[in-house]
Design a protein that fits this description.
The chain is α/β, with parallel strands linked by helices. It contains eight helices and twelve strands. Strands 2-1-3-4-5 form a five-stranded parallel sheet, sandwiched between helices. A four-stranded antiparallel sheet has the order 6-7-8-9, with helices on one face. The longest helix is centred in the middle third of the chain and has 20 residues. The protein is globular.
Length: 234
């Protein structure tokens, strides 16, 4: 039975109780707090393996809490799932731009949230170990760009790049398949699995963020109009 620590930052007592009951069979250690400040304090002192973060919180909202989480180098790869009662694309895109790994829209099924948590835990495990991300080859080079899957490191001109887990997975997939054109849906399915609900705009946000972090090498990722994206071999 697993014993991963799931930090739930949610001020709705009924939702907290529902999740406590629904996750009883998962074997997770649930830590439940009601404010962003409490959640950050817990992460600072004790850490966690995954965070479920409500956006609408008293005091510090979920967006501000997420920004602080991603500003901490120790928490860069920590899976964070945003929960929002507002399903508008703008809110979802804002969360992804700040570094959220996933999101669920209220009201949601506890089973769906549990599946998203398990997926986040698996992605993080693979990102840290490197296994399952690309067959036997784990080191890729393209021009000045170097990526080591097993060590989860990426360098540009010998300068380390600080990539989020999803950004790293996308880049690894690109470097594994240079010059192949991927639609947005195929690209996200390759790094997050089939049937993952995502909009074209949210994929574009991930690519935009990755290009910015690649700096002068960002043009290696080409936009193929009406189709998707391609990574140029050099």
């Amino acid at each position: 039975m697993s014993s991963e620590r799931i930090l739930i930052i949610e001020d709705d007592c009924e939702i907290q109780e529902m999740l406590k009951y629904a996750f009883a069979q998962e074997g997770w250690k649930l830590i439940q707090v009601k404010t962003g400040e409490e959640g950050l304090a817990h992460l600072e002192k004790n850490g966690a393996d995954c965070v479920v973060l409500d956006i609408m919180l008293p005091g510090m909202d979920g967006f501000k809490a997420l920004k602080k989480i991603r500003a901490d180098e120790r928490l860069r790869l920590l899976p964070v799932i945003l929960c929002t009662a507002r399903g508008e694309e703008a809110d979802i895109v804002a969360g992804l731009e700040l570094g959220a790994d996933d999101y669920v829209v209220k009201p949601y099924s506890p089973r769906v949230l549990a599946a998203r948590i398990r997926a986040g835990l698996r992605r993080n495990e693979l990102a840290e170990s490197g296994y399952g991300l690309g067959g036997e080859k784990t080191v890729y080079r393209n021009g000045a760009l170097y990526l080591d899957v097993q060590r989860h490191t990426c360098f540009l001109d010998e300068t380390p790049l600080e990539l989020l887990a999803t950004e790293f997975a996308i880049l690894a997939h690109f470097m594994r398949h240079p010059d192949i054109v991927f639609s947005r849906q195929k690209l996200i399915a390759a790094v997050r699995g089939d049937d993952y609900p995502v909009t074209d705009r949210s994929v574009d946000v991930q690519i935009l963020g990755l290009r910015k972090k690649l700096m002068h090498a960002g043009d290696m990722i080409e936009t193929i109009r009406g189709v998707g994206y391609r990574f140029k071999a050099q």
